[in-house]
Amino acid sequence: MRCILAASLAVATLAGRVLAHPAVSYGADDEGPVRRRKTLGFGPVHPHAVFRQVPQQPLPGFAPAPLRDPVEVAKHFVGGLLRDQLRAESGFVVRKDSYTDKATGVTHVYIRQVVNGIEVADGDINVNVKDGQVFSYGDSFYRGPAPSFYSSAVVPHPHADYCTELEYELESQQDRFEQWLGAAGQGEQVQLVRRRFNEALHEPLKRIHSMNCAFVNLPYDLAHKSTAAALEDPRHALLQFMVAATPEEGVVQDILAKYDEYLEGMKSTFEAHLVGDMQTMVEVIDNVPDAVSPVKAKLAYVQVPHGDKTTLDLVWKFEVEMKDNWYEAAVSAKAPHRIVSVVDWASDSPLAPVPKEPTERKLATYNVFAWGINDPSVGNRSIQKETYDVIASPFGWHGLPYANDPTEDDFKRASKAVKNTTTTWGNNVFAHEDWEGRNAWMYNYRPDAGESLNFDFPYEPKLTNTTDALEEAQKYINATVTQLFYTSNMVHDLYYRYGFDEVSGNFQQHNFGRGGEENDAVIANAQDGSGYNNANFMTPPDGQNGRCRMYLWNTAMPYRDGDLEAGIVIHELSHGLSTRLTGGPANSGCLGWGESGGMGEGWGDFLATTIRSNKNYSDYAMGAWAANRPNGIRNYVYSLNETINPSTYKTLDKPGYWGVHAIGEVWAEILWVVSQRLIAKHGYVDSLFPPAPLDNGTIPSGDFYRPQEYTAAGEKKPLVPKHGNSLMVQLVLNGMKLQQCRPSFFDARDAIIQADQVLTGGENYCELWKGFSSRGLGPDARVEGRTPWGGGIRTDDYAVPKACLED
Ligand SMILES: *[C@@H]1O[C@H](CO)[C@@H](O)[C@H](O)[C@H]1NC(C)=O
Ligand SMILES: *[C@@H]1O[C@H](CO)[C@@H](O)[C@H](O)[C@H]1NC(C)=O
Ligand SMILES: *[C@@H]1O[C@H](CO)[C@@H](O)[C@H](O)[C@H]1NC(C)=O
Ligand SMILES: *[C@@H]1O[C@H](CO)[C@@H](O)[C@H](O)[C@H]1NC(C)=O
Ligand SMILES: *[C@@H]1O[C@H](CO)[C@@H](O)[C@H](O)[C@H]1NC(C)=O
Ligand SMILES: *[C@@H]1O[C@H](CO)[C@@H](O)[C@H](O)[C@H]1NC(C)=O
Ligand SMILES: *[C@@H]1O[C@H](CO)[C@@H](O)[C@H](O)[C@H]1NC(C)=O
């Protein structure tokens, strides 16, 4: 293990490109007030974590397969897996967000490790069970001896090894960067790139270093003052974290100057929470500087590598909601100056029972860029109907029970009746203006179409100059909120039909009694005033609202409005999808940094590109209209042509590929190439939306699914999308559900291949492998010296498994 812990630039925004290509012009984003959100994202790497397939295992003495309770099967399996490896103090609980996927019949069981009665926050096993058999699992459980709870053992001094590693990393980054720049010569572009390097990578790393290693310089010498108290009192660790996390230098200075005052001001209450069937105590701390809501704190263990050994460190686990971030942080409980890991939930960027014939109310209409038109450069607006999917949105897009409407008073909320709105307010999405760029959203302005439900508002932006550009853009707020509402609802319904439903953690106020946690529709801010030229999404665990913020782009005159570029909206909403599906609905910490954080970006680009594509193949850029750059906001456009987009797995080794967006671009390109192989084999369907159910609830195959097949026992098999593009979307979503928390490229690739095994019996095994291999992600691709921001030395493999050599 060369490096234990380091910073990644997990800028979870749409456009995080920082230092990729010095030759590219950065255009207007150098001039305008570019929104650069501060964000932290780093944590230990777990070399022992695996994602594995399990050969068919007969379990002697068990009931016939279909009768077995999948959770019992999973528990039995995990018991076997851990036999002889865990000590008496160690156990596990089955998380309540485990679920059975109605479409595939796969039960996804999430298991959390418990040592000394305390959760191991990164000790996860996810077990995939079908027909009474475990067929794959991911495992990052800790295997060493349990620490004694109050052991004074390991700790404090500023983990010398860790700080040395960080210093080494800082230096070698600088060296590599200088070397690379050396070849690029001088000039303005190079200066710009240098500045960006410092801002984006070097400064944050230095900051982490000083937060964690400048032990002796702390104003109150916390090493002595708070170490003893920290185990009982999370406030020390929390204040330390806020010092590192706040983007406001003034707040930092103020905390340092009035440390005791802040400490006293923070008041705690206690709540009992259940993890599986284990009760844990959560401390809820109010008055935390720069947090916008009370912070949740609980004791947990995390696994930290020390040299070549991994130990369990006791930490305070915090959930901190701030204006621009929503952090899940682990701070050492024994050395409260030390942040062990941080994930920012903000990312910048057979189906359910069929309800009765739903709404009889008038359907809304919207003057919008129709689904499939990516942005104003490819088509004009037209009047579209409220074409909601009856399975995904039984009350339509404008109906929700009074009980789930947070703006209603207690009296109204006692009613189960359905409220029908005439604004952009519904069960899936609350869309509105946020010119002030604030956190408040409930009473923000929303267009009201009145009884007609006709959301037809003008959009005729006139040529402007900088003085009146903002004012001009704001004139069309009615049209842009309408568009954001329409696109977001379409995305909700589409992902629902591919399996992002209530039990798997989707975003809805009301769940129609279908399970999962409620009251978590997407809060969608149009024209968010906190900046320009970006977009972001915050994904807390199931049961808390996701937040989508869209910005104006000052890249052209008149300003361009991100709300009108479907690809950007889809990218952002896909963060919610991948975060909730990976590692289970209640775990939002699985795509925090490095390769997993990068894929969190890549899935969004891939889905946005797939949705806008049509039967005639074409290359596509991401964000080209909003950014006013033909090649968009990534290094390359998505293309089958290796000259146009040369990305392979090994591309991740290059300087400029340390941030999640660059990593994500490589992943999205690989998926794009793979999907074209499936399209070549299975053809293309114009609409990705599956057919509506018949009156008796049956989903007809139509031209969308293959004819229904049955098992030997006469049961329906999962419906299989017939065409290449729809099948790929299905495999990508099913793969997210199979893969483990903090997946690597290899894990996510294997999960997609396995999703095909489950769905079709593996008939696309060779097409999928050939696709992945063509971009270096063959079976023998390797990485050595993996680092938490995605660094390492990679080897491409262009070979395919033996079984695929024949044809
Ligand atoms: C909303 O519309 C539904 C379906 O058309 C109707 O049953 C319901 O009564 C309406 N709600 C109210 C409060 O009018
Ligand atoms: C939009 O409509 C105008 C006027 O009919 C037409 O000139 C223009 O080409 C259309 N734009 C696109 C992108 O189709
Ligand atoms: C900008 O536009 C406004 C309104 O169109 C005009 O009054 C003003 O003179 C323009 N300013 C410049 C610098 O062109
Ligand atoms: C938005 O629409 C409402 C209702 O039609 C209208 O009163 C208002 O002036 C519009 N807002 C803007 C900025 O045009
Ligand atoms: C695809 O190309 C054909 C032939 O050029 C054209 O007729 C058709 O309209 C195109 N389809 C789409 C969806 O662009
Ligand atoms: C790939 O792109 C390059 C550069 O645009 C072009 O010269 C080449 O013909 C393309 N290859 C194919 C197979 O289309
Ligand atoms: C539902 O209706 C369709 C068409 O009428 C019929 O083919 C199918 O067998 C029915 N399914 C059930 C479960 O009744």
Automatic annotation (TrEMBL):
Active site: 572
Gene Ontology BP, a term: proteolysis
Record's keyword annotation contains Nucleus: no
Record key words, sorted: Hydrolase, Metal-binding, Metalloprotease, Protease, Secreted, Signal, Zinc, Zymogen
UniProt: Zn(2+) binding residues: 348, 571, 575, 601
Annotated ranges, domain FTP: 92-141
Enzyme class: hydrolase
Known EC number: 3.4.24.-
Molecular functions per Gene Ontology: metalloendopeptidase activity; zinc ion binding
GO cellular component terms given for this protein: extracellular space
Subcellular location: Secreted
Annotated cofactor note: Binds 1 zinc ion per subunit.
Pfam families: FTP (PF07504), Peptidase_M36 (PF02128)
Segment forming the signal sequence: 1-20
Superkingdom of the organism of origin: Eukaryota
Cofactor(s) recorded in Swiss-Prot or TrEMBL: Zn(2+)
Assigned protein family: Belongs to the peptidase M36 family.
Protein name per UniProt: Extracellular metalloproteinase
Source organism: Gloeophyllum trabeum (strain ATCC 11539 / FP-39264 / Madison 617)
